[in-house]
Specification:
The chain is 21% helix and 31% strand. It has helices at residues 38-47, 62-65, 68-75, 86-89, 169-180, 199-205, and strands spanning 4-11, 16-23, 28-32, 51-56, 79-82, 110-112, 117-120, 123-129, 138-142, 147-151, 154-155, 158-159, 188-191, 197-198. Strands 1-2-3-4-5-6 form a 6-stranded mixed β-sheet, covered by helices on one side.
């Protein structure tokens, strides 16, 4: 069976992790959170023979969505986000792009549901709703590959901030404990900022959830 691989580009003033997930036999990629440089992402993948097949958002904050329209147009693909995040994606105040000095809104092409399973670019994954950082934050779990893209929900020994619109500390802790800590301990976690970790490590050492 072909191996599912994950690559990372760190982009923008917030050092946002943009991930591209692909099978090594097909070179068709899912891009998660295209930060603020859609053309750079597209060109880098093209140079390496990788075709963008879909774009996923973990949530709608400015530093994760600024590159969406450009990448979507260049690649000619659909943009996906959790259904509960629609209003935030379409509101430049709530997605904090106003505060960041570059107001921006985007409307995803398709909205996903908690627990929904999809196959894009030949890769199977599950949508896990994890409200807390924003009301419509979600994570993407790739069971065959053994990894989770956690957005700004779960970081290495930390969690996402909850002081922006629709954020809730009680919700994010509950999401992590009830939705993410039920995954296998060896699951690799790839967050929206910073280095990767594992579910087992966070269960033991994350001070926000122990």
């Amino acid at each position: 069976m072909a191996e599912t691989k994950i690559g990372r580009m760190v982009l923008g003033s917030c050092q946002t992790n943009c991930y591209f997930i692909y099978r090594d036999d097909e070179k068709r990629a899912i891009v998660v959170d295209p930060a603020d440089q859609g053309a750079k992402i597209y060109d880098a993948l093209q140079r390496n023979g990788i075709t963008v097949e879909a774009i996923l958002l973990t949530h709608g904050h400015f530093d994760h969505i600024w590159g969406t329209k450009e990448l979507r147009e260049m690649a000619g693909v659909k943009l996906y986000a959790l259904d509960a995040e629609k209003e935030l994606c379409e509101d430049s105040h709530n997605n904090v792009s106003d505060m960041a000095g570059r107001p921006y809104t985007v409307t995803p092409d398709e909205f996903l549901r908690d627990g929904q399973e999809l196959t894009l670019a030949g890769i199977h994954f599950q949508v896990i709703a994890t409200p807390g950082h924003t009301i419509g934050s979600c994570c993407y779990y790739f069971p065959q590959a053994g990894f989770l893209v956690s957005g700004d929900t779960l970081f290495a020994e930390s969690v996402g901030r909850t002081d922006f619109p629709t954020g809730s500390m009680s919700s994010i802790v509950r999401s992590i404990k009830e939705k993410l800590y039920t995954l296998p301990g060896e699951t690799e976690v790839y967050p929206g900022h910073g280095d990767s970790t594992t579910i087992e490590h966070e269960m033991r050492y994350n001070p926000f959830t122990v």
